[in-house]
């Protein structure tokens, strides 16, 4: 967490300096917003009965998007990129593994005593696609932008952590998570500060995940701030 926070703050400081700088020479073939860094609050939607979140669940996202203007004014563009992200979810769903079989239960249904931490974390390779509209030009680095898009992600690693009076358990690389995840995105704002939202279209867990006989169809909803770096 300290590493991601430090890296994020470093990239944000670069973004602020870049956005406040003016080009020495006018470049009529300029491209915009090709590096990004963002931090999000991660929520779970479409949860089964009894599942709720607690604490603050964070996501850190970094990457590169190739900006490809599609009109002479260059205020419309397509973007395709590659990035990485780390996403944690603090909640009351206990993920256990017995004899290589993963099952789920609610905290209140188990004798755990005081639970101080219960979360799972996913680490993803992201491939974002964006349709980009902005009010920029070759010399103006502060402009309005609206970037709707789609993001496809591949899960490379996952981990769970449960710490209570009764247990201190850590698991990793469970096969109960969906390897492929995808959803709709939107970034919009002015200058350095931009609003970002991601709405997943498929569940975090695969079709074998169930709680009390009911499928776990929880989906990710991420809301936060996006910083673009030239």
TrEMBL record:
Alphabetic keyword roster: Signal
Domain Outer membrane protein beta-barrel per the UniProt entry, residue ranges: 23-206
Keyword Signal attributed: yes
Top-level taxonomic group: Bacteria
Signal peptide bounds: 1-18
Protein name: Outer membrane protein with beta-barrel domain
Naturally occurring in which organism (per UniProt): Winogradskyella wandonensis
Lineage: Bacteria, Pseudomonadati, Bacteroidota, Flavobacteriia, Flavobacteriales
């Amino acid at each position: 967490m300290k590493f991601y926070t430090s890296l994020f703050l470093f990239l944000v400081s670069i973004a602020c300096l870049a956005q406040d700088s003016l080009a020495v020479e006018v470049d009529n073939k300029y491209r915009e917003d090709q590096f990004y860094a963002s931090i999000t609050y991660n929520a779970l939607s479409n949860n089964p009965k009894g599942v709720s979140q607690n604490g603050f669940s964070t996501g850190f996202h970094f990457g590169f998007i190739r900006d490809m203007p599609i009109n002479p004014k260059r205020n419309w563009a397509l973007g395709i990129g590659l990035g990485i992200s780390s996403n944690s979810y603090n909640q009351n769903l206990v993920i256990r593994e017995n004899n290589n079989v993963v099952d789920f239960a609610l905290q209140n249904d188990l004798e755990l005593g005081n639970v101080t931490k219960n979360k799972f974390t996913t680490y993803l390779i992201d491939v974002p696609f964006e349709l980009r509209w902005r009010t920029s030009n070759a010399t103006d680095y502060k402009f309005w932008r609206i970037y709707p898009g789609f993001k496809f992600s591949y899960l490379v690693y996952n981990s769970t952590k449960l710490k209570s009076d009764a247990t201190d358990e850590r698991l990793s690389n469970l096969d109960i998570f969906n390897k492929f995840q995808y959803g709709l995105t939107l970034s919009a704002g002015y200058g350095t500060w931009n609003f970002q939202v991601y709405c997943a279209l498929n569940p975090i867990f695969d079709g074998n995940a169930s709680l009390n006989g009911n499928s776990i169809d929880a989906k990710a909803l991420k809301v936060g701030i996006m910083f673009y770096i030239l």
